[in-house]
Automatic annotation (TrEMBL):
<protein>
    <recommendedName>
        <fullName>Methionyl-tRNA formyltransferase</fullName>
        <ecNumber>2.1.2.9</ecNumber>
    </recommendedName>
</protein>
<keyword id="KW-0648">Protein biosynthesis</keyword>
<feature type="domain" description="Formyl transferase N-terminal">
    <location>
        <begin position="5"/>
        <end position="183"/>
    </location>
</feature>
<dbReference type="InterPro" id="IPR005793">
    <property type="entry name" value="Formyl_trans_C"/>
</dbReference>
<dbReference type="InterPro" id="IPR001555">
    <property type="entry name" value="GART_AS"/>
</dbReference>
<feature type="binding site">
    <location>
        <begin position="112"/>
        <end position="115"/>
    </location>
    <ligand>
        <name>(6S)-5,6,7,8-tetrahydrofolate</name>
    </ligand>
</feature>
<dbReference type="GO" id="GO:0005829">
    <property type="term" value="C:cytosol"/>
</dbReference>
<comment type="function">
    <text>Attaches a formyl group to the free amino group of methionyl-tRNA(fMet). The formyl group appears to play a dual role in the initiator identity of N-formylmethionyl-tRNA by promoting its recognition by IF2 and preventing the misappropriation of this tRNA by the elongation apparatus.</text>
</comment>
<comment type="similarity">
    <text>Belongs to the Fmt family.</text>
</comment>
<dbReference type="InterPro" id="IPR005794">
    <property type="entry name" value="Fmt"/>
</dbReference>
<keyword id="KW-0808">Transferase</keyword>
<dbReference type="GO" id="GO:0004479">
    <property type="term" value="F:methionyl-tRNA formyltransferase activity"/>
</dbReference>
<dbReference type="InterPro" id="IPR011034">
    <property type="entry name" value="Formyl_transferase-like_C_sf"/>
</dbReference>
<feature type="domain" description="Formyl transferase C-terminal">
    <location>
        <begin position="207"/>
        <end position="305"/>
    </location>
</feature>
<dbReference type="Pfam" id="PF02911">
    <property type="entry name" value="Formyl_trans_C"/>
</dbReference>
<dbReference type="InterPro" id="IPR002376">
    <property type="entry name" value="Formyl_transf_N"/>
</dbReference>
<dbReference type="Pfam" id="PF00551">
    <property type="entry name" value="Formyl_trans_N"/>
</dbReference>
Length: 315
């Protein structure tokens, strides 16, 4: 049963546990397809994707087409004669010619409980929206955006202090375990696929710069969820004296005392702690990054600051 030929398609760290689980379980991975290497860091060094690095470690051939829809890319994948294509956060939409290629179909490890949070940023947006439960769904792929029939799913709680980083790690491991449990039924033809209810669908588009902007008129809990849904990959940002000021960690707080009617964005320091007025209370900033500086504890930033009366964040 495990002698089927699998082509695995994935790019970021989220997909690595699924690839490793397939290999550890004895499945025959004919090839791995990942996004092209991209320059990273200030020095713009060309770096392999996490999936490529894992595949090379496992001794699996890697393809990195710029556009998987191009005929030459489809032909290169078809040359491996896959019985099944498994994708996990690959990052490109597969054309019908690829979806129709393997006899067992194409399946996807998706980081949400479909039909909620279809799209490219389901993990971040679940946190940003204040959800307390999410999960992983394994589904047959279709031409629409995460619209295929669902095969299996597992729920994962979102803890109050989870960030996008911690939840990515939890869901990637949960997805790998679910994939290994689900594959035997797919191969044997006994897996029962359930259509999604499109009326219940919600969407999780990729994050934009606007999603990172902190609107201090929002509630403290909403701002907290926004920041932890962005961390540690982007963080939230505001403006201070016209310059970008990033917030990496924060939490709702009782505030510095007094000033209950402070306008949103008002900055207060008390006892070495940094507070900002939100729309319905106070947020304590724990880790910040002023323009041109590295991220630092808010207490460290305050040591070198003399905040004038009425100081406020904006933007």
């Amino acid at each position: 049963m495990k002698d089927i030929r699998i082509v695995f398609m994935g790019t970021p760290e989220f997909a690595v546990p699924s690839l490793r689980a397939l290999a550890a379980s004895g499945y025959r991975i004919a090839a791995v397809v990942s996004q092209p290497d991209r320059p990273q860091g200030r020095k713009r060094v060309l770096m392999p994707t996490p999936v490529k690095a894992a595949a090379e470690e496992l001794g699996i051939p890697v393809l990195q087409p710029e556009r998987v829809r191009r005929p030459e890319a489809v032909e290169a994948i078809a040359a491996y004669e896959p019985d099944l294509i498994v994708t996990a956060a690959y990052g490109q939409i597969l054309p019908k010619s690829l979806l129709d290629l393997p006899r067992l179909g194409c399946i996807n490890v998706h980081g949400s409980l479909l039909p909620k949070y279809r799209g490219g940023a389901p993990i971040q947006r679940a946190i940003m929206n204040g959800e307390t439960v999410t999960g992983v769904t394994i589904m047959y792929m279709a031409e629409g955006l995460d619209t295929g029939d669902m095969i299996s799913r597992v729920e994962v709680p979102i803890e109050p202090d989870d960030t996008a980083g911690t939840l990515f790690a939890k869901l990637s491991e949960a997805g790998a375990e679910l994939l290994v449990r689900t594959l035997p039924g797919i191969i044997a033809g006994t897996a029962r696929a359930v259509p999604q209810n499109d009326a219940e669908a919600t969407y999780a588009p990729n994050l934009t710069r606007e999603d990172e902007r902190l609107d201090w008129s929002r509630g403290a809990k909403q701002l907290y969820d926004q920041v932890r849904g962005l961390s540690p990959f982007a963080g939230g940002y505001t403006l201070l004296n016209g310059e970008v000021f990033k917030v990496w960690q924060c939490r709702p707080a009782d505030g510095p005392g007094g000033g209950a009617d402070a306008r949103p964005g008002t900055i207060r320091a008390a006892g070495g702690r940094l507070f900002v007025a939100a729309g319905d209370g106070w947020l304590e900033l724990l880790q910040v990054q002023p323009a041109g500086k590295k991220a630092m504890p808010a207490a460290e930033w305050l040591k070198g600051m003399r905040l004038p009366p009425g100081a406020a964040f904006g933007g």
